[in-house]
Amino acid sequence: MSQSSAADRPLDHGILVLDYGSQYTLLIARRLRELGAYSEVIDSRVKSPPAGLNVNGVILSGGPDSVYEEGSRTLPDWVTTLNVPVLGICYGMQLLVEQSGGKVRGATKREYGRAAMHVRSTKGPASVLFETTSAPQTVWMSHGDDIGAIPKDYETAGVTDEQVIAAIIHKTLPIAALQYHPEVAHSEKGADLLKRFARDLCKMTLDWDGQARVETLCKHIQDVVGTGHVLVACSGGVDSTVTAALLLKALGPERVTAVFCDTGLLRKNEVPWVAEKLKVLGLRHLEVLSSADLFMRELKGITDPEQKRKIIGRLFIEEFEGYASKHKEFTHLGQGTLYPDVIESAGHGAGAKVIKSHHNVGGLPDRLALKLVEPFRWLFKDEVRSIGLCLGLPDELIHRHPFPGPGLAVRILGDVTPERVKMLQEADHVFISALREHGLYQVPWQAFAVLLPIKSVGVMGDNRTYQQTIALRAVTSSDGMTAGVADLPMSFLTRVSDQIVRQVHGINRVVFDITTKPPATIEWE
Questions:
Q1: Among residues 90, 234, 261, 390, which one is catalytic?
Q2: What CATH number should be reported for the domain holding residue 339?
Q3: Domain that residue 238 falls in
């Protein structure tokens, strides 16, 4: 099976974000896209820009390195030869300063959090990025190094109350560098600066909106599929549902067949719910594969989360491929793979770290009988929801909480058995039903239960128990790349805990996960 390549991207132009390891790197790309400027993230160590992308500008992200330390990441030679506007952020600023003959030093006092920046009047091309006012603006700092001396070809555009150089621009070239992070919401003029960088320096038309995405992606699908017929893998989640709807719009109902694989690892009553809701798409061809026994057999005794994901990915593809082999009209397999899936599976550049393999990325074998069509491989979750709304899909589908491709297998820590799956299904159903009943379903971006491999002592009536533990997780996010903890009332959580312990046999303790991402991931495995 042929994998998606750089040529499969929805647009052939955009801003390139070089990742130097900052926790905010993906946020830069998201902010640009929100502003209407298409952008992509690549690893800073790649030897050349991605093929097929006409680069309008380059942004160098922050990162944990110090430019004066051995082994620190450097500025690729090809960045300067592109002759496009460049914006350095934090470590990216320090790279530009060090390369141009300035001085980077260890800061006498590490800055983290809000700072007041005073903008100075400048004349270089990049001066359009800054609004010169007498009042200082709030910026978000996060750095241990700063600038001791700027290069002779640069001028200072902003300093903080502590006299830290916060912004510089090149005197004659469209190059700017910031010590602060404009992508973070706490930088009050940050979004405006990024907009000016894309629009005024990079000369981009800010038209990357929902309708433009639909039109662009439909054309992309038509080009990729040609006269073929797509077998689209549907799970009932947002990503695969919108994928199916977009394929229908691009190709028509006669050339799209949705196949829903019942792995036995789905939420309670998921199969009939999904089958009913998919009818609203206008699908004429929907098949349900009863594969629970196969998945349970292959997962027996497997406790390592990466191995679980690989096995599930392989079985998914084998099941779809087996179905397709009986229907020779299929030429392509459609999947709802997202950009964060690719990045977390180390698909964005040389040297990238695997956070976790996603079943539709890390689990794919080298060769498959069908070609792959993944219209959302370059998109974030919020962009997919926007496309779904443009396509007229019902709100209950578009704003449904995300559900992992491997299903409950990565929410059951340890061995996956039918008994443990049923236990988790029941506990999760209690939690999600309670959120809906109390009008709290839209408070978290995602909420779910996790079955832990931990037993603890409890008491029910006059009897001692020694039973399983459930963890509840509820997070706020927009794309899954970062996440906060949803503010659910303690009284609500106490009632849910009581319901779970009373109604789900084998559970005697419930805990609530209050960890953000980073440092944790949203899913436990």
A1: 90
A2: 3.40.50.620
A3: 210-398
Which of residues 365, 398, 431 is at a domain's end? 398
Q: Tell me: the pLDDT tens digits for 131-169?
A: 877 789 999 888 778 899 999 999 999 999 888 899 999
In this structure, is residue 521 part of a structural domain?
no
- Report the amino acid identity of residue 73: R
pTM reported for the whole predicted model: 0.68
Look at residue 182 and give its three-state secondary structure: coil
3-state secondary structure of 383: helix
Distance between CA atoms of residues 257 and 23, nearest Å:
39
**CB-based contacts of 372: which residues, under 8 Å, 6+ apart?**
1, 2, 3, 4, 332, 333, 335
Question: For 253-270, how does the pLDDT look when each residue is reduced to its tens digit (9 = 90+)?
Answer: 999 999 999 999 999 998
In angstroms, the CA 231 to CA 373 distance is: 10
Do 227 and 363 share a structural domain? Answer: yes
From the candidates 40, 98, 183, 344, give the one annotated as an active-site residue.
183
CA pair distance 374, 384, nearest whole angstrom: 12
What CATH number should be reported for the domain holding residue 105?
3.40.50.880
Claim to verify: residue 164 and residue 230 sit in the same structural domain: no
Do 92 and 148 lie in one domain? The reply is: yes
The Cα 60–Cα 62 span in angstroms is 7
- Sign for the CA dihedral angle at 304, 309, 312, 313 comes to negative
- 431 and 385 part of one domain: no
Q: Do 466 and 429 fall within a single domain? A: yes
Catalytic residue of the set 40, 111, 155, 181? 181
For β-strands 165-170 and 463-476, DSSP reports them as unpaired
pLDDT tens digits for range 70-128: 889 999 999 999 999 999 999 999 999 999 999 998 876 666 778 999 999 999 999 99
Q: How crowded is residue 376: how many other Cβ atoms within 10 Å of its Cβ?
A: 24
Domain count, the chain: 3
CB 33 within 8 A of CB 208: yes
Say yes or no: 175 and 218 in one domain. no
183 flagged as catalytic: yes
509: Cβ contacts below 8 Å, ≥ 6 apart = 456, 458, 467, 468, 469, 470, 501
Q: Is 234 a catalytic residue?
A: no
Query: Among candidates 78, 77, 85, which has minimal Cα distance to 175?
Result: 85
- Is 50 part of any domain? yes
Of 141, 176, 201, the one marking the end of a domain is 201
Give the residue among 36, 34, 91, 81 at the shortest CA–CA distance from 59.
91
Rounded to whole angstroms, how far apart are CA atoms 21 and 401? 28
Residue 394, domain member (yes or no):
yes
The verdict on 123 and 156 lying in the same domain is: yes
Is 329 among the residues known to form the active site? Answer: no
